[in-house]
């Protein structure tokens, strides 16, 4: 019978784990367990607890509980992952003369999504000197005037440069801009972050955690 599908967010930030043996789906390993944890022997426990190593490729702390991957959906009847992007028939190589039309189609689609977001909700734009956020700003067109403001997080030397570039971009776009400085997180906050995400991520995502806490509601 069709048990439905569960989709992950596009970059896998939401924690979703499942146990093919019991059929349980949960947001963390401990919630999925109906027995004592059986440590996943592929990973060194001490290195994981120190944040030096993170569970990857669908692994978790338990030997049988698996983590969803963002470009897959979970078949809730079979408890099996199926890739939904890119599709099997997706052509990954494009002829050079097709590029302008493909780029225009991507830009139009991105612009429509962004315009819907900024005109229906109060939005802040994370802006840096990088290509990604510049493309987002450009794709908005006149809808960018509906943004509340742009902001830039500063947590290392290069991000200070980013903030200066972003301030110039925001000024030329007619947007208010503010900087958010890195706020060092406590050991307890970092440990809580690791627990919530199942020790699956760290690095820059953890470094800016404290900064995110200072953003306005």
SSE order and pairing:
Elements: E1 5-7, E2 17-19, E3 24-26, H1 29-32, H2 45-49, E4 66-67, E5 72-75, E6 80-83, H3 99-120, E7 124-126, H4 131-140, E8 149-154, H5 157-173, E9 177-181, H6 187-196, H7 204-207, H8 209-212
Parallel strand pairs: 7-8, 8-9
Antiparallel strand pairs: 1-5, 2-3, 2-4, 5-6
What does this structure look like?
The chain is of the alpha/beta class and 217 residues long. Helix content is 35%, strand content 15%. The chain contains eight helices and nine strands. The longest helix is centred in the middle third of the chain and has 22 residues.
Task: Using brief descriptors, characterize the structure shown.
single chain; 3-stranded antiparallel beta sheet; 9 strands; alpha/beta; about 220 residues; globular; 8 helices
What's this, in brief?
The protein has helices spanning 29-32, 45-49, 99-120, 131-140, 157-173, 187-196, 204-207, 209-212, and strands at residues 5-7, 17-19, 24-26, 66-67, 72-75, 80-83, 124-126, 149-154, 177-181.
């Amino acid at each position: 019978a069709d048990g439905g599908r569960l989709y992950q967010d596009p970059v896998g930030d939401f924690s979703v784990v499942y146990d093919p043996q019991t059929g349980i789906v949960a947001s963390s390993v401990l919630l999925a367990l109906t027995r004592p944890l059986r440590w996943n022997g592929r990973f060194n426990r001490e290195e994981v607890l120190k944040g030096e190593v993170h569970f990857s490729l669908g692994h978790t702390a338990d030997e049988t509980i698996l983590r969803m991957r963002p470009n897959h959906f979970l078949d809730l009847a079979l408890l099996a992952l199926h890739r939904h992007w890119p599709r099997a028939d997706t052509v990954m190589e494009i002829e050079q003369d097709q590029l302008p039309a493909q780029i225009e189609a991507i830009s139009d689609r991105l612009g429509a999504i962004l315009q819907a977001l900024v005109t229906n909700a109060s939005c802040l734009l994370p802006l840096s000197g990088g290509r990604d956020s510049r493309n987002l700003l450009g794709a908005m067109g006149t809808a960018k005037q509906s943004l509340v403001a742009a902001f830039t997080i500063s947590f290392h030397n290069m991000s200070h440069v980013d903030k200066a570039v972003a301030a110039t971009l925001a000024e030329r776009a007619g947007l208010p801009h503010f900087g958010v400085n890195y706020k060092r997180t406590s050991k307890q906050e970092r440990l809580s972050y690791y627990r919530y995400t199942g020790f699956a991520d760290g690095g820059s995502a953890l470094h800016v955690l404290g900064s995110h806490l200072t953003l306005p509601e």
